Amino acid sequence: MKRLGEFAVGDTFRSVREVDPFRPVYYASASGDFNPIHIDPNIGAAAGFRGTILQGMCTYSWAAEACVAYLGDPARLRRLRVRFSRPVQPGDTLTFEGRCVAVEGATLRLELTARNQAGEDVLKNVTAEAVVEDR
Amino acid sequence: MAVDRAHLHRRYGPYVYGVGREDLRNFTAAVAGGIPGRAFASHVPDHAHLFTWDEDAARAGPHGGLVAAPGFATVFAIEPFAAAVSDPVLGLDLVRLLHGEQELEWREPVRPGDRLETVGEITRIDERGNMDVVQVTTTTTNQHGRVVVRGVWTAVIRR
């Protein structure tokens, strides 16, 4: 596993996720969020979307996952804050790009962007903190 | 109609959640590109961190066993937020409600067998333009009495 000394300001990381048609249903079954807008394309259409909408917390979890892939250990991620700025739907491709902006002792500060295939932010003000303790 | 600020500091919970091994792995599958459940569980989901998926790999890692993916916290910590936004006393219109912001702070790994208790409190009632903002802050404690996750959940209700 990567050690503290191997993390540096300016490090970048990236993750691309395609939203397949059944992802909102899979996420519903694992999370318990069965809000009909995530399950029934007709409800989504009635609300003005082209079908279902992915749970915001799935997008949030993908941002967390991008951080974890960089950090090497899920338990190193200590804080993640986002603003949801645009709905995500099946057929979308999301690109998460992160950057280490500070290393203060064992604490890393990260900033991320999350954009869809049109280059629009689906999350804004995405900031994360991690603690890397060498064992 | 604006949300009545008299409901500030209204409390919800405690809600108890027993963490199962397959709950953790199903969540990992759903987020990491796989399929939850046993019928399609034969391959490792593309984006899964092995500490959240593979018992043997996790046992050899720094935590000595499986730990939850960070996002798993939403499965149990959401309960006070869900209770607040659907609380008839507040009278929020769920059709107009959006999940506006989310912050989670993880203090300790969640593991299979944990017994978690989550409480929540309304910590903000506000107006922003033609929107109402309702914020719920949650705290989840494990069976050892230690805080594992703190959450700040912000709902935005279009008028």
Task: From the structure above, extract its key features.
heterodimer, A: 135 residues, Thiol Ester Dehydrase, Chain A, B: 159 residues, 4 helices, 5 strands, elongated
Describe this structure in words.
The complex is a heterodimer of chains A (135) and B (159). Chain A is an alpha+beta fold. Chain A has a single domain (4-131), classed as Thiol Ester Dehydrase, Chain A, CATH 3.10.129. Chain A has three helices and five strands; from the N terminus they run E-H-H-H-E-E-E-E. Chain A has a five-stranded antiparallel beta sheet with strand order 1-3-4-5-2, with helices on one face. Chain A is elongated. The model of chain A has no long low-confidence stretch (mean pLDDT 95). Chain B is an alpha+beta fold and 159 residues long. Chain B folds into two domains: 1-19 and 68-159, Roll (Thiol Ester Dehydrase, Chain A), CATH 3.10.129.10; 21-66, no CATH class. In chain B, 18% of the residues lie in helices and 35% in strands. Chain B has helices at 21-31, 55-59, 73-77, 79-85; strands at 11-18, 97-106, 115-128, 131-141, 147-158. A five-stranded antiparallel beta sheet of chain B has the order 1-3-4-5-2. The radius of gyration of chain B is 18 Å and the shape is elongated. The A-B interface holds A 1, 15, 17, 23, 26-27, 29-33, 56-58, 60-62, 64-65, 67-69, 73-75, 77-84, 135 and B 23, 26-27, 29-37, 47, 49, 51-52, 61-63, 67-71, 74-75, 78, 98-107, 109, 152. Strand 2 of chain A pairs antiparallel with strand 2 (97-106) of chain B.
Task: List the topology elements.
The complex is a heterodimer of chains A (135) and B (159).
Chain A: E1 12-18, H1 23-31, H2 41-46, H3 56-71, E2 77-84, E3 93-104, E4 107-115, E5 121-131
Antiparallel strand pairs in A: 1-3, 2-5, 3-4, 4-5
Chain B: E1 11-18, H1 21-31, H2 55-59, H3 73-77, H4 79-85, E2 97-106, E3 115-128, E4 131-141, E5 147-158
Antiparallel strand pairs in B: 1-3, 2-5, 3-4, 4-5
